[in-house]
Amino acid sequence: MFDDRESAKLKATSTKEERDLCFARFYERFPTKSEREEVIFRAASPYGIKCECGNLVANRKYGERTAICPRCKKKASATANTLFHGAKRLSAYCCAIFVTGEGLAISANDFSMRNGIATSSGNIILHEVSAVVVDQFGDAAEMISAILCKPVAKRSKETPAREHPKAEQIEAEKRASTSVGLKRSSGDNPRAMSEATRPAKKVPESDLERRILDFLSLQPLQFEDLAKQASLPQTELLCTLTMLELGGFVKQLPGNCFAAIENDMPLSFQQPRTPVEARKAKHFFLFISKTFHAISRKYLQRYLARYWCFVDRERWNFATLLEACATAAKKSYAQLTSYVTPLSVKVMFSEAC
To answer: What's the pTM value of the predicted model, to 2 decimals?
Structure first.
C-alpha cells in the first residue's frame, strides 16, 4: 500500500531559493522591458507582420509592436490574432512563460508581487498560459475529476450557495446526469423524479454517527485522518464505523479508507483504481497543497496543466511554451473565467511518482 511518506520524498514544489534563482535567470537573460517584449513580438510574427491587406510588413523597429504597412499605410500589429493581442503587460507574459516553462511552482500572489502587478492581473496571465497548456494535452490519459478533488477548498462562481467548494463536483455530475436524462423519458430517468416520489434518505440515529457521516459526506478519508478530524479515540471510532457499515451508511475502501454511501450521491469522490494511480494523484495533491494550499474545482484542469509543466522537464521549456502561446488564439476575459473543468480530466503525471 502506498505510504504518504514515499510521496513526501519526491519534489512537490519549488522552494523560495529555487524561485529566486529562476527569476534571476530570467532577468539576466532579459534585463530590459524592451527585450522581454521583443521576444514576444518575434515569436508572434517570426516572418514579419501580416497586414489586413495581405501584405507582409518587415519594417518593424526593435521593441515596437506595430509598423506602418507600405501598401495600405495602416498600422499592423505583431501580436494581432495571437494570445498577446491587446495585452498591455507583455513583460509579465514573458516572465510567466519563462517560469512556467522552467517548471517553477509559484502562486499568483508571489508571481504578481515579483512582477509589480496586481494579483488579479497576475492570476489572469497565469490562467491564460495554463489554458494554452490545457490545449496541448491531446490524447493524454483521462481520470474522473472526482478522484482529484481532495485539494478543492476554494469557492468559485460554480459553488452552490452555503455549500462547501467540493459540492461543485456533485452539482457538475448532477447537471451532466440531467442533460443525459433529457434524451430519455422522465420515467426512465431517476433524477427526473420529484422530491415527493424520491425515496426518503436514511439518517443515522445517534449524534456521533451523524457527525462521523458528515466528515465522510464529501470525500473518503483514511481511518487515522478521520480520527484526527473527529477528535475521537480509535477504538470508539472503529465501533462507530462498524455500526455505520451495518446500517448501510458507510463502506470501507482499500487503504483503510472509509466513504459515505448516500442514495442521491453520484460518482463523487471515488478512489483511484490502482496503487500507481493513487500514488500519482497524491503527488499532485502535495504539489497543490505546498504551492497553492487549495484550489477551486472550476479550474482543476488548468492546475493539472501547471503540474504537467512542473513534472515534465523534457516536454516543456521556455522555447516550447513560448511557441505554443504564440500560436494560440486570444481568449477573452469572459472565455477565461467561464471555463469549467469537465468531469473527465486530462492528466500527465511524472513517471518517477
So the answer is: 0.75
